[in-house]
Amino acid sequence: MKTRGLFLVVLLLFLAKGYAQENKSRFSFELNSGVSFATSELGDVELKPGFGFEGIFHYRLQQHWGLYAGWGWNKLTSKEKISGENLDFEETGYVFGLQYKHPISELPLNYYLRAGGLYNHIETESTDGTIVDDTGHGFGWQFAGGVEIGLGSKWSLMPGFKFNSLSRSTDYFGTSTDLDLNYLSLRVGILKKF
């Protein structure tokens, strides 16, 4: 009980210090999109470059530290035909984590780093859109970084990258298979501060 109480006091002091430091916007929303490149095979399947997007809410705790959470979708397609057709692998679900943002000199630029988790699933779809398999949701991780370019007091351009890693087990075409989806994305986003 004492540990939980001490943790709560430290958390409240951390948040109060952040409120006292600046009167800048605490909330923001980001939409980003871009190309994705698999860094390994998915099971035994080699993947073509794909495409995805995310919508992320940000909350600034202190001057440089904040939290983020949102939803994302990413699609990669098999290079070879499987059972007579190319299959699409769609990763969808939730992202959440901690963000560090710091100014670059006196310019209207910040660099940012993010580390967090995923709660996603992988759907396998045929070319006509029929769902062949769904792994169900599970936890993975994400690392991201980039530059925030100020476009005015409330808008920013957000070029960057992200790396997602998600491991799921599934019965794939009647065979138990481990799917490790690892990919690097080059993203460009727009951020609105509130």
UniProtKB/TrEMBL annotation:
Name the keywords, alphabetized.
Answer: Signal
Instruction: Say which domain of life the source belongs to.
Output: Bacteria
Keyword Signal belongs to the record? yes
Outer membrane protein beta-barrel domain spans which residues?
Answer: 8-189
Q: One Pfam family for this entry, by name?
A: OMP_b-brl
> Which InterPro entries does this entry report, sorted A to Z?
Beta-barrel_OMP, OMP/PagP_B-barrel
Protein name, UniProt field:
Opacity protein
